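Annotated sample (chain length 363).
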Amino acid sequence: MRPGFGQFNVPTDEYLQFAAQFGATDVLLNTPILPGSQRWELHDLVKLRVRVESFGLKLTALENVPTHFYDQIMLNGPRRDEQIENMITTVRNIARAGIPIFGYNWMPSHVRRTPPERIRAGAVATAFDDGMAQTYPLTHGRVYSEEEIWANLEHWIKIITPIAEQEGIRLGIHPCDPPVPVLGGVPQILRNFAAYKRLIEIYPSDCNAIEFCQGTMAEMADDVDIYGKIRYFGSRNKILYVHFRNVSGAVPTFKEEFINTGYVDMFKAMEIYYDVGFDSFFIDDHVPQTFQDTIWGHRGRAFANGYIQALIEAVTKQRQEAGIRPGTIRAWSPETVPACRPFPPPLPLGGGGRGGRVGSPDS
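Output written by the structure step:
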C-alpha cells in the first residue's frame, strides 16, 4: 500500500516536486494534455513517463482520455468502429510506454454536481442533490435505455480486454458519479455493487478491473456497504488503485467531506485493504477548498495525503505486530449477492438549474 498524488494534467516541476517532497511514490495524471486529436502516440507517452521518473516518482496510471476519443463507443454512434481502432492504438501505446494502468469512465454526461456546500469551519465542498439534477436538460439529445448502454459497454470490454492482456496493461472503470439511475438522459449503469459484479464477469481477466473511487462507492445507495465492496473486489484483485475520499452519505443527496469527517470509517477501510492484500496506491482525488488554498488544493491535498500515509503506517504496523499477513481475505462474498436490478424509468427532464458538469471524473 503506497501513497500517490495525481489529478493534474501537466507534470510541471511544481506538481512533481510537491508530490516527491510530501512522500508520494506514485503519480496519476488525469487526462494529460498531449498532442493528438483522436488518439495518443507512443513517443509522447514515453516522454510523459520519463518526465515523472526524473523526480524519483513512478507514473503508475493514466486516468481518462478526452471524452471525444470514445463517446461514440459509449453511445454506439456512427463513428464507433473508428473510435474503437483509435482507442486500441492508444491503449497499446500506453502499455508500450511502460505505464501499467489505464483508468477511464463510462459517463457520457460526465461527473455532475449541484451547488457546493459549506462544511467544517466554512470550507467549501462539492455537493449533489438528485432532485435538482433531474431538472437539468438532456446531454445527448435523447433518452437512452439501460439495455443500450450495457450493450455498448459489453461490446467494448470484449474487444479491449484481450488487447490489454496481450500488452500487459490493466484497465479499470471509474464508478458513475453521482451513482444515480440516470443523468442527462443517459443511464448511470455502474452505480452499485451488482453492476460492478456484472462488469468484471463480462470478460473474467485481471485486465478487466476497477478504478476504485471509494468516494463514489460510498455514495451508492446499495445492498452491499463500502466495506463489503472493498472486501469483495479487493479479495479478487480487481482494485487497481483507490481514490481514498470520504463523503457525508449516499444518494439522493450528499456532499464531499474532509478525509476524516465523512461517514466512512477510514481506519477500518484501510484495515480491509491490508487484509485483502491490496498492493497499489491511494490518492486524494478531491479535497475541500480551504482558506487561501490553490485551485488544485495544495493544502488540502497535503493534509489528506499525510492522513493516508499515517493510516498506511498505523494499519501495517498494527497488523504485523498481531502476526497478520496481507491477503488473509480471499474471494470474500456477502451472505446474499444482489442481482443487477433494472433501473427505474428516468424522471422527466426539464431545463436550466444551477450547478452542473464537473469537467472530467475527479477533476
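Annotation: The first helix runs from residue 13 to 21.
Annotation: The chain has one domain: 2-358.
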